[in-house]
Amino acid sequence: MRKTLYLYLIIILLLLSISFIPFHGVLAVQSGGQSKINAAIPAKTSIKIFGYTSPDSTVQVNAVRVFGQTNSDKTGYFEFREVAISAEALEICVNTIDSDKRTGFPFCFRLPDNFNVIEVGPLLLSPTVSLSSTKIWQNQKVHAEGKTIPNQPVEVSFFEISPKTLSQKISNYIAILFNNQAIAAELPILSTTSQRNGSFSFNLPTSRAIAYRVFIKAAYKDKPTLKSQTLTYSIGSNFSFFMIYILPWFILIMTLLMLASTTYAYDVKTHRIRKVMGKFIETRWKPYVIRLNLRYRRLMYSFQEYLRSRRK
Predict the structure, then answer these.
(1) pLDDT at 33
(2) Among candidate residues 107, 104, 111, the one with its CA nearest the CA of residue 87
(3) d(C-alpha 213, C-alpha 63), whole Å
(4) Quick one: which of 141, 137, 133, 150 has its CA closest to 246?
(5) Residue 211 has what pLDDT?
(6) Hey, which residues does 25 pair with through a beta bridge?
(7) What keywords sit in the KW lines (predicted)?
(8) Is the pTM of this model over 0.90?
(9) Phi, psi of 207 (to 5 degrees)
(10) Strand 91-97 versus strand 58-63 pairing type
């Protein structure tokens, strides 16, 4: 009797504790449409997150037991009406994936302890950027492209990395010797403007065989966005290009020419190569050609006989 009473008391306490946990309906926006999704997810509160990124991008919000996804409109605006915040979540990260599947740098912010904040924004998400080529040689025309908020100023920052490979060190020494150029840790900031669809592009410096780090920042109403992913690219020197792609072919061609000239000189002096080749042609090559010709005629005859039998 007592065991049954204790069991009822435990069940009643569990029901009461669950009833005091708040549950929130999550509003999801997908492909431009809105749909209300009611889910029983234990949460402390729900907040609204909004901001700007490139047009037609996929925007995701992530945290511990928190996930949401929506799409930005033609102006780059995105909005999460209600994001249910779990009890375990300490910070939220918002990331953008543009229409070309490039990923931006996550925008992470720590959640307040009192949870009095009901909306966060506008968040200015980072631009996305990629290089047109992965193998870059000195003086090659290469550009970078990406997307951000439409019709906004874009700043490109370059930083040189000290040469590490032997070819880069040789090329850099030659540049300093003849052009009196010194290694600069930071280059002037390049400015451009994003287009109506949010895209932008710019040429990369490739005059020197050195490595660069590059990242992008945009601005919206004089407020800077988060910086993009930092890309690192290395420029191969003209010396390396010659050693890898030109010198081996040059050595091969010169070796073949020397071998051919030596063979010809030896044959002119001894006539042995001509005798060997003549014997090979008479004893090996001509019989092989005759046998091959007979097989071909036999095959054609069999094929003609097959066609005649099909007609009958």
Answers:
(1) 36
(2) 111
(3) 30
(4) 137
(5) 84
(6) 38
(7) Membrane, Transmembrane, Transmembrane helix
(8) no
(9) -75, -25
(10) antiparallel
